[in-house]
Amino acid sequence: MQDLIQKLEAYKQEITNFSGTGEQAAEAFRIQWLGTKGRVKEVMGEMKHVPVEQKKEAGQLLNEFKLFTEARYAQLKEAAAAGAGAGGHAVPDLTLPGDAIPLGSRHPISLMRHKIISIFQRLGFAVAEGPEIEDDWHNFTALNMPEHHPARDMQDTFYVDAGENAAVDWLLRTHTSNTQIREMEKGKLPIRVICPGRVYRNETISARSHCFFHQVEGLYIDENVSFADLKQTLYFFVREMYGKDVRVRFRPSYFPFTEPSAEMDVSCFICGGKGCNICKKTGWVEILGCGMVHPNVLQNCGIDPEKYTGFAFGMGVERPAMLKYGINDIRLFSENDVRFLKQFTAAT
Ligand code: 2U9
């Protein structure tokens, strides 16, 4: 046993003093010490001569010696890889190419949102953003939604518990119209804004609908703004967005905040109007709602409806993105699965 201890000490000394550098020296070290005929194997073989009562202690010593040798080998290899020169200093190879920085990709909702916004920016619309947690006035009351309007129903709106002493009802905005109300309240006219953002509705989540989604809304208020201005603005949008061959139709509709109100359809850009699953065989796809801003809404924001008129419109972002990119489940947008996200590039 004493012999073994002395031998291991001598070997350790030898290992510590090993002075070779570079890959070849490291390999020679490995063969000499850790190879199948190396010295570690050799001393391990001496276990069989150790008396039974000392085997435990000898085992520990040998194990420790093996780890010591492996650590020294790892050290030599690392130094060799770093190109340790004669002086022992690492000499980096400055001619090697640098590590590539991984690039992310843009989210499909961002891409579609940008595509929509940029068309209106070219017409002189500015982008305005507003809060997602909103009070009852900016989300409903100012927009001419009477207290018992169905859209205020608990089923459609997420209310925020702001405590018993809250002076007003707080909620997650159900549309980005709150932002236009805030712009109007600033009292600076004319107004020409586009309002993108996330909105919330208390709906069951499925492949087709989610409890949050994205909208882009627009508002134009000035003297003498007419329905003809609304139509020409939206015609321009449709041409830029879906191409010059797409046909457009307006259907009368109803929104509390616009009068008159309409919904706009485009001839199906999937089947060209022949009839398919996307247009439900009608040849038309609804893309947005619009109308002339209701005089009550102007008045609620301190704008004289006798002097000013305006138009507004609103559209969802998810559906056009799903059609453009062939996405069949709305939930994919918010699951953040990298395999999904990395498929989209900045090229629209
Ligand atoms: C103000 C006055 C009027 C915005 C409008 C629509 C019609 C509309 C929907 C389209 C699909 C929402 O995402 S969607 O579910 N929107 O149909 N939105 S007019 O009208 C306004 C906005 C602000 C001050």
From TrEMBL:
Where is this protein localized, as stated in its record? Cytoplasm
As one GO molecular function, the record gives: magnesium ion binding
Could you tell me which PROSITE patterns the record lists for this protein?
AA_TRNA_LIGASE_II
**Subunit details:** Tetramer of two alpha and two beta subunits.
Q: Does the keyword Aminoacyl-tRNA synthetase apply?
A: yes
The Aminoacyl-transfer RNA synthetases class-II family profile domain covers which part of the protein?
119-343
Alphabetical UniProt keywords = Aminoacyl-tRNA synthetase, ATP-binding, Cytoplasm, Ligase, Magnesium, Metal-binding, Nucleotide-binding, Protein biosynthesis
Q: Which GO terms describe its cellular component?
A: cytoplasm
Family the UniProt entry places it in: Belongs to the class-II aminoacyl-tRNA synthetase family. Phe-tRNA synthetase alpha subunit type 1 subfamily.
Recorded hits in Pfam families, A to Z, give: Phe_tRNA-synt_N, tRNA-synt_2d
Name used for this protein in its record: Phenylalanine--tRNA ligase alpha subunit
Give the reactions, separated by semicolons, that this protein catalyses: tRNA(Phe) + L-phenylalanine + ATP = L-phenylalanyl-tRNA(Phe) + AMP + diphosphate + H(+)
Q: Which NCBIfam families match?
A: pheS (TIGR00468)
Keyword check for DNA damage: no
Q: What is its EC number?
A: 6.1.1.20
Give the protein's cofactors.
Answer: Mg(2+)
> Its Gene Ontology biological processes?
phenylalanyl-tRNA aminoacylation
Q: Which CDD domains match?
A: PheRS_alpha_core (cd00496)
Main localisation, per the record?
cytoplasm
What does the entry list as the binding residues for Mg(2+)?
A: E259
The protein's matches in Gene3D superfamilies, at most eight in alphabetical order, are given as: Bira Bifunctional Protein, Domain 2
The cofactor note from the UniProt entry for this protein is: Binds 2 magnesium ions per tetramer.
Q: Which InterPro entries match?
A: aa-tRNA-synth_II, aa-tRNA-synth_II/BPL/LPL, Phe-tRNA-synth_IIc_asu, Phe-tRNA_ligase_II_N, Phe_tRNA_ligase_alpha1_bac, Phenylalanyl-tRNA_Synthase, tRNA-bd_arm
Q: What class of enzyme is it?
A: ligase
